[in-house]
Design goal:
By secondary structure, the chain is α/β, with parallel strands linked by helices. It is built from 13 helices and 25 strands. The chain has two domains: about 400 residues, no CATH class; about 55 residues, no CATH class. Strands 5, 6, 8, 9, 11, 12, 14, 15, 17, 18, 20, 22 and 24 form a 13-stranded mixed β-sheet that branches. A ten-stranded mixed β-sheet has the order 4-3-7-10-13-16-19-21-23-25. α1 crosses α13. The longest helix has 17 residues.
Amino acid sequence: MEDEIYNAQNTGDFSCDVEYAYDSGYGLNHATVDYISDAKGEEAWLREFRHKALDVFFSKDLPGWFLHDDVKAMNFDKIRYYLANSKEIKQTWDDVPDKIKETFERLGVPENERKFLAGVEAQFDSEAAYSRIRDALRECGVVFVDSAVGLKDYFHIFRKFFATVVPVTDNKFSALNSAVFSGGSFIYVPAGVKVEQPLQAYFRINSENFGQFERTLIVVGEGAEVTYLEGCTAPRFDSSNLHSAVVELVALSGAKIQYITVQNWSNSVYNLVTKRAIAHADADIRWIDCNIGSKLTTKYPAIILKGERAHGEVLSIAVASSGQQQDTGAKMIHLANNTRSNITSKSVSIRDGVATYRGLVKTAPGLSGCKNKTCCDAMLLNSESKTATYPKIQAIGGGNRIEHEASVSRIDGEQIFYMMQRGITKKHAISLSVNGFINDLVREFPMEYSVELRRLIDLETENSIG
């Protein structure tokens, strides 16, 4: 059991020597943008889009509440913004370059594709190395490709929704992503098509002093359904890496999107992302989010409930271990009558880890029949562990119902002692207590993911109580 737990945590802690065909070098300026645009062979409008976004990035300050000194002091000229072994995306694992293929084999991606996935995209640093969707789905009109392919081959759909959910000017890091983005997924599901098996993208950082800036766009037609899984890993480095993605989801009338993230970044990664969705009438969007690892994560999935009877839900787990900050939460914006939303957040702080919930629930003026329930629970495993909750509620007018509750508890020492007296080791007693605390959320993940999550959390909580 101990070997299994160790291997689960350390699966991603390795890197391989790759000879990169494309390397933008260190530094962030307009020449960096031109290098990326030239390497990709982009049209003039996209190059101009990137340059304008970079100007926005330079002009914007960090949000006023952003208190993380490490990010304030970050030197963006000590990061490489584009690294690619090749721009050619393979459709069979045998064709992927050996070292990159071995990386994904060690991470179990090909095995997962064979077992339970309808399609896989695997990104290695700046570009996708592998992308494939099952033929039956392709014949139904489902599109699952890298964002660069989406821009080129499905321009009429991609351009219509691109940067409309998360505009360039939204925040400093959405502007940065817009300037240097590369990779990410584009998914389009036609009206009425229900994708029964999940689609998965896997994002791998392999290089030190590197920034990964994928951009994902998912558009689901009327009455259609899709589940998307996202996995992230990186090796441990002595210096920092930056991950700053942008995700945009559009669920048209009656559509259903389930977006599941399992993040297991190493503690040298700054994970600063922007994720947002728009739900039209009768649409249903669920974010299921697990954040383990990273030096700092700032992530607040948002759902804009634009159409009547739309429903949004965010289920979030955050584990902040020693030296880590998990600053996570959710946003629900009600813009139509009879819209419903739920936020459930659970966090575990270990040793000197800091877990913060930061959320927003807002109803537009003149609405009625809107409902929201937010529940934030935190568990502290040590006396030096920290947690905080910063909810913001803007409810204008009557006829709506908004609930917020939060709790903080320490792990029950008497409960641990009781289990130890009955032959359970201290490590496993702590594991049972923590997994019991988050169990109702872990069950929402696919079986293959929930087993891995429990293993990862087991290792994080080892020897956490002295």
